Amino acid sequence: MTVKNPWQRLGSKLIYSNPWITVREDDVITPGGRPGIYGVVETRIATGVVALTEAGEIYLVGQYRYPVDEYSWEIPEGGSEVGEDPMVTAKRELREETGLEADSWEPLGGEIHLSNCFSSERGFLYLARGLHQGAAEPDHTEELQVQKTPFVECLAMVDRGEIKDSLTVIAVLRTARLLGMRSA
Amino acid sequence: MTVKNPWQRLGSKLIYSNPWITVREDDVITPGGRPGIYGVVETRIATGVVALTEAGEIYLVGQYRYPVDEYSWEIPEGGSEVGEDPMVTAKRELREETGLEADSWEPLGGEIHLSNCFSSERGFLYLARGLHQGAAEPDHTEELQVQKTPFVECLAMVDRGEIKDSLTVIAVLRTARLLGMRSA
To answer: ipTM of the predicted structure?
Structure first.
């Protein structure tokens, strides 16, 4: 298997930057040997948490996602600060969005590349168990809804296409495999 | 459940455009009522195909993904032309990357939002069966490798985190559910 990078980067210029994304355009030689450009969107690392209760429920957060112009139910998610361990991010996001802390944290499968054609975004998922309400109150606005939902219902929402967020879809399907659940 | 868009868009300016992505920055009023900006990356619709043989193999395509700087094994994928039915895209991409045509096409689950924090990118997956070699030869460069792989091995690659592309991970996990396969 070829693993050597067949692209050559001749130069790179900054196109745009805000606190969440940076867009650069590279001058490249393509794998076919022709000069070209490659526009790349750089982002923070994305994290997501399946917070699973002993009764087999997980926490979903509902919010309006501006870029897709749709309301979306998702697991608690958030972006890492530069250099931050993604699990630390995940713990913070869970606490901020639900007020929960957890005794047990483990990776839920490996790294995800969310959209590798144009973006360097990487995602990491975690399974949190042994949940208890933390000291801090959730820091969410009224536009964020939090709902404890039976996992089987979340899985049905994924199967029916009602949950569309890629990290949440992957997290729910991975959890279903962990729990040994077959399709309905 | 709130479904009304709590964001107000006051204006929008084009930041960058190439044949694959367009970046715009909107002036907004946030759900909390404060003025702000939102940078949004617009892309073509993404499609992916699980091409499943009667012997239970699927086709994987290997290529170097420049934005993440890694070699990646994925199902055949490609972006739609404007206004194109994503299934038409999927059929073309399968033919171009593998030379295959299929008698049976069906959606493999619902729409995916690949990275809804900053991108409007939507993905659609298909399951193709009844495969046969088409008249056209694959139009791929030497940098694209095509490999017919037992589905159980693809599933193991997903479980081990060796397949990282989000659409491929979702496609393989959905196919595993369809085929009624439990975790190893």
So the answer is: 0.95
Return the CATH number of B46-178, one of 3.30.300.20, 3.30.10.20, 3.90.79.10, 3.40.50.1000: 3.90.79.10
Q: How far apart are CA A160 and CA B12, in angstroms?
A: 34
Tokens of A158: 């994924």
Distance (Å) from the C-alpha of residue A112 to the closest C-alpha of chain B?
5
Residue of A nearest to B163 (CA): A112
Catalytic residue selected from A25, A81, A111, A142: A142
| DSSP result, B113-148 | ES-TTTB--EEEEEEEEEEEE-SSPP---TT-EEEE
Nearest to A109 by CA among B121, B166, B72: B166
How far, in Å, CA of A49 to CA of A100, rounded? Answer: 11
DSSP H/E element including A91 = helix A86-98
Kindly report the CATH number that applies to the domain delimited by A46-111+123-178: 3.90.79.10
DSSP class of B44: P
List active site positions of B. 142
| pLDDT one digit per residue (tens) for chain B, 184 residues | 557 899 999 999 999 999 999 999 999 999 999 999 999 999 999 999 999 999 999 999 999 999 999 999 999 999 999 999 999 999 999 999 999 999 999 999 999 999 999 999 999 999 999 999 987 666 655 578 999 999 999 999 999 999 999 999 999 999 999 998 765 4
Concerning whether A74 is annotated as a catalytic residue, the answer is no
* Contact criterion met (CB < 8 Å) for B178 and A178: no
pTM (predicted TM-score): 0.95
Instruction: Give the dihedral of Cα atoms B25, B29, B30, B34; nearest 10 deg.
Output: 120
Whether residue A46 and residue B117 make contact (CB cut-off 8 A), yes or no, is yes
A92 token code pair: 């913070």
C-alpha A65/C-alpha A79 separation (Å) is 15
